[in-house]
Amino acid sequence: xxxxxxxxxxxxxxxxxxxxxxxxxxxxxxxxxxxxxxxxxxxxxxxxxxxxxxxxxxxxxxxxxxxxxxxxxxxxxxxxxxxxxxxxxxxxxxxxxxxxxxxxxxxxxxxxxxxxxxxxxxxxxxxxxxxxxxxxxxxxxxxxxxxxxxxxxxxxxxxxxxxxxxxxxxxxxxxxxxxxxxxxxxxxxxxxxxxxxxxxxxxxxxxxxxxxxxxxxxxxxxxxxxxxxxxxxxxxxxxxxxxxxxxxxxxxxxxxxxxxxxxxxxxxxxxxxxxxxxxxxxxxxxxxxxxxxxxxxxxxxxxxxxxxxxxxxxxxxxxxxxxxxxxxxxxxxxxxxxxxxxxxxxxxxxxxxxxxxxxxxxxxxxxxxxxxxxxxxxxxxxxxxxxxxxxxxxxxxxxxxxxxxxxxxxxxxx
Length: 414
Known about the structure:
The protein is mainly α. The chain contains 17 helices and no strands. The chain has helices at residues 3-22, 27-38, 42-69, 72-92, 96-123, 131-158, 163-188, 206-214, 217-236, 239-245, 251-280, 283-303, 310-330, 334-337, 345-356, 359-374, 378-413. Helix 3 packs parallel to helix 5 (96-123), helix 6 packs antiparallel against helix 11 (251-280) and helix 9 packs antiparallel against helix 13 (310-330). It is globular and about 65 Å long. The model has no long low-confidence stretch (mean pLDDT 87).
């Protein structure tokens, strides 16, 4: 695989991720509009994500089994085709009943058919000694494409006076991005790469494969690492309300900082963190440093008084976001360091995602509960919780680093 082919493959996979997530999470950008077109209450709209999350969690394991036994290229193409059709269909038929059905279909397409196959394809995009750069570049590209899809969608929506018509055009645009990603997969995502040329497809019964993966201690270490890394990624989202509600910056200033953290930093932290982790030969070592750096950042943020200068607020919040994103963008590359067998990548990813992404549905309500009870003092509770998460993450990354070093030494002496 040439460097150009590798680059196009990674960019295609990044676009695949961004295009796949655009419709399920469309409420983040167009909350009031989607309520208007579906004629729903806030609670009913929230149920859409409940359907997507619940159905998706039930289908992670079957999706992992599919990814290990089927062509990742075909699975991704099928997933993107369904996503595109869902966008086009919802653009013209958007009753609440249809929305519930579509969000259920999206859970099948994105979480079962697409997710494990996507991470497997990313892992197979580079050699064993460049997994950091591969995953870092992948997540960096998702920042680029998510921004492009978001900005284009907003521009298309804003170009039409009628809100519902603008929403329709935006959905059609998202469907077009999914079609472009599908074509990219067909052109640039080959099933055979130098990474997997000697990897055999599992031939045992699916249940036996699942049990084999569940018995791997390395998988459970990855579950804990992803749980901590993703939990801290969610914590980054609370920097914006903290700076406005506690430190006293303006809402506009906080929104600008939030946008930079959410999209701008990911574009640079992904490739940077991947390069550094490959250079020193250990992703886990980079994550250990990040977890300890985050502890320092959180302690300092807790000590900042009201009225702190904007320069210091910018520096501290961006540093916190930087180290959080460095860990988040490369955490899956630890699969190689801890030697999770390549033929079980799909199944391993499904188990890791099923349990490691629990913070997605847990931390939001938990943090919101603390803020409702304690008001602005709830941010201190959240930050202390994140510090504890950093400690657990650092210990887990240390175990992964030591295990990886032992496995490398054994391989060299064999």
